[in-house]
Amino acid sequence: MTAKPQPAYKRILLKLSGEALMGDQGYGIDPATLTRIAEEVKDVRDLGVEVAIVVGGGNIFRGVALSSKGMDRASADYMGMLATIMNAIALQDALENQGIFTRVMTAIEMHEIAEPFIRRRAIRHLEKMRVVIFAAGTGNPYFTTDSAAALRALEVKADAILKATKVDGVYTADPAKDKSATLLDRLTYLEVLQRDLQVMDTSAIDLCRQKGVPIHVFNLNRRGNIVRVVTGEKVGSVVGP
Q1: Handedness of CA 157, 127, 55, 8 (dihedral sign)
Q2: pTM tops 0.70, yes or no
């Protein structure tokens, strides 16, 4: 009988972009992709790891894009926050279909469908092995879901942030545009900022730097990668002290 791999972290925050839920579609939510992500989260939780998730809304609405075309930035950002809530509810449903108890907590109060974010309550849910999905970003315009992920990770005292992407990690340049781009296994927070590597936005990187929270950047499309990162395998790139 094969022994279960031992997790390297007790509590993690998984950062999912809205685009990650699209699959191969150009818009919206792909049910098959949603189910696969839920299955992988279940695999991690079954190892005894407490899981929090921050989800974006770019598959439904991108506030920055619309604000660049004339819409008030604050209004556009609030619309983007509402898109993250839609994704959070979809993710909650997929997780509960896997038999996982979940809670959606939002920075914008919607009592009929989710709990308001209260830090101590969120920590208690995690201690009870419920997967907590944080939606609506920070609740403030002009802040990205990257910043929300870093903020929530610090608030619930997560051991690491796992940023799921469509590429294998952090490269010296955009691998889709530059064929000579090479994968960087490990970087410091300062290197990311100085080289403008676009891992997360500046405020998110600085928040993680202050508390020394490592950021794992990896390819979500490779099945099993979330478990591999959590169990300490060398996957993707790590940003740390």
Answers
A1: positive
A2: yes
